[in-house]
Amino acid sequence: MSDVVSGAVPTGPAGGTSADPPAEVTALYGGPATRRVRTRDLLAAKERGERWPMLTAYDQYTAAIFDQAGIPVLLVGDSAANNVFGHETTLPVTVEEMLSLVRAVVRATRHTLVVADLPFGSYEEGPTQALRTAVRFMKEGGCHAVKLEGGRRYAPQIEAITGAGIPVMAHVGFTPQREHVIGGYRVQGRGEAAEEVLADAQAVAGAGAFAVVLEMVPGEVAKRVTGALTIPTVGIGAGPDTDAQVLVWQDMAGLRTGRAPRFVKRYADLAGALTDATRRFADEVRAGEFPAAEHTF
Ligand SMILES: Nc1nc(=O)c2c([nH]1)NC[C@@H]1CN(c3ccc(C(=O)N[C@@H](CCC(=O)O)C(=O)O)cc3)CN21
Ligand SMILES: CC(C)C(=O)C(=O)O
Ligand SMILES: [Mg+2]
């Protein structure tokens, strides 16, 4: 095992059974052994017809919670540009910024497979640049796989990276890094364009990708692609028939405020809870109620 994995900071609940992987995760690799989920566990899950959840993660506490809650795959998304750094698009986030977040997520987790998104500009030039960047993410980030956006045109990059022993998750359909060419946030693969999405998915699978994200494609198209491929499909805005589902965690947990895309379901109101806690803290400070005797040395 690598230093990064064996040296993972224990971050589970104190005194708990945090060393034991959750049942949902052991089910994926069919045994009690404490080890990380591997890409072949995800292929086997597809063969068994088992669906799995994926979330983004960008920091220690949330990553540890998702790891303990049985999320088998975490993506350190380039959506950190939006959800961590506050940019309008995903384009500005850098390799260095991504690496810091990847290291935090890897240190905080024990069971999850950690996938790092290659940011805009770090792989498009060709297979050599793509492999160089992917190697940095594996060596300096300690992640277990990388992800890149693009279909047929990026098959050479995927071949080069997987050829060096680095698992690649592909991403087709709506690819946010190309939003300026696509012309905004738009569903891809409607009508005859369905064939393009299928061809892209087949090409990235043929190039060696272990899974493929399908973003904002009609449910029927995602269903067809999922049936046509032996590798798992991971849907976001792609309907219920993909092998896996991914959401940005701040969307899933209701931390992000404002209008969310239609494909988002909020499972909590963290923005409300945090606003409430913040207001009470501020009020108590102003009223001289915090700190109380028990908080004072
Ligand atoms: N917080 C967050 N969630 C995401 O899902 C996400 C990010 N950030 N950052 C990177 C990309 C950008 N994504 C987006 C952003 C906006 C829409 C959106 O506004 N969609 C509209 C219009 C769809 C249409 O009309 O075709 C929607 O209502 O879903 C979709 C995906 C997905 N990714
Ligand atoms: C939404 C997922 C698939 C992603 O690419 C990201 O968060 O960056
Ligand atoms: Mg991304």
Automatic annotation (TrEMBL):
UniProt protein name: 3-methyl-2-oxobutanoate hydroxymethyltransferase
Protein residues bound to Mg(2+): 78, 117, 149
Gene: panB
Originating organism: Micromonospora inyonensis
Chain positions recorded as 3-methyl-2-oxobutanoate binding sites: 78-79, 117, 147
Biological role: Catalyzes the reversible reaction in which hydroxymethyl group from 5,10-methylenetetrahydrofolate is transferred onto alpha-ketoisovalerate to form ketopantoate.
Cofactor remark: Binds 1 Mg(2+) ion per subunit.
Cofactor: Mg(2+)
Localization per Swiss-Prot or TrEMBL: Cytoplasm
Annotated Gene3D superfamilies: Phosphoenolpyruvate-binding domains
One of the record's GO cellular component terms: cytoplasm
Location, primary (coarse class): cytoplasm
InterPro entries xrefs: Pantoate_hydroxy_MeTrfase, Pyrv/PenolPyrv_kinase-like_dom, Pyrv_kinase-like_dom_sf
